[in-house]
Amino acid sequence: MKAGKKIISMIAAVWVLSFVTFLAFSVLPGDAAEARLGTNATPEQIEALREEMGLNDNLFVRYGRWIGGVFTGDLGYSVRYARPVSELFAQTLPNTLLLAGLSFVLILALSFPLGLLYGRYPGSVGDRAGVFLNQTFMAIPAFFLGILVSVILGIGLGLFVPGAFVSYNEGLGACLAYLFFPALAIALPKVAMTVRFLRSALLSEKRKEYVRTARSKGLGEWEILWKHLLPNALAATVTFLGVIVSEIVAGSIVIEQVFGINGIGRLLVGSVANRDYDVVQALVLYIGIVVIVLNGVIEALVQKEAES
């Protein structure tokens, strides 16, 4: 029953998002007809193309046609690239998914060992140094961190060539090798946030009565940490990771610009600059659906854990 309500609420959220997105781009000045014909077109030519494209229909008719196309895979037509939006998605989306996935793997691989270490030795020199580094990385904007990674690791140490992106269809191994560095730029601030959150959750659990009981039974500190503290702190951390995943999707838009990655973030920025509204609408809807679905799944997992 609860799962059904959650699914219905997610569908309703996606529907509201789709309508608000379509409405927002409908009231902006200019339209696809003007963008396609350019500035040299006469008003008569623009009006004729509007009629042909159905842009003179009322808002609800146009929305119904657009959302129906979304369900059938017809996301519209890109004026800038002179290609269907679905083809642009198929070309750029895998690169973005690989970047986001690699970023999340790095976050998990770095956050939990560091969080456990700082939670095990609170107040130590390493813990204080870790708190300082966490605050530093959280304060650095994503685009500037991307520039630092490019300058230090790319130009300085020669570990990769900034801008020489290799798409997944040209070679998956080369693509992942290049994406490691932008993924690192996305991951480091999120690692700092996750480590801080996990450390706080572990220290909060450490003050509870069951920890003293475990110590009185002769359990060692690491055993208490693994068997008792971490499982109890994990539910809140998983919820926090759900928020982090949403931020990864947003952060990739900036990072793709810095590293020259042919992904949906770069496509979005270029489409906004060129008033390619069909592409922008589809991308905003896609990003919104990802965020809504991920948050719904994370919330359901946390609820299930709390009930058990």
Plain-language structure description:
The chain has 308 residues and is mainly α. The chain has two domains: 85 residues, no CATH class; 218 residues, Orthogonal Bundle (MetI-like fold), CATH 1.10.3720. The chain is built from twelve helices and two strands; from the N terminus they run H-H-H-H-E-E-H-H-H-H-H-H-H-H. A two-stranded antiparallel sheet has the order 1-2. It starts with a helix and ends with a helix.
Looking across the biggest beta sheet, what order are the strands in? 1-2
Estimated radius of gyration:
24 Å
Characterize the quaternary organization of these chains: single chain
Please identify which CATH superfamily of the largest domain we are dealing with.
MetI-like
Distance between the termini: 17 Å
Mean pLDDT comes to 79
Low-confidence stretches: none
Give the tally of structural domains: 2
CATH class of the largest domain: Mainly Alpha
Q: State the share of residues found in helices, binned by percent.
A: over 70%
Number of helices: 12
How many strands? 2
Largest sheet: 2 strands, antiparallel
User: Shape from CA axes?
Assistant: globular
Sum up the structure in keywords.
mainly alpha; globular; MetI-like fold; 308 residues; 12 helices; 2 strands
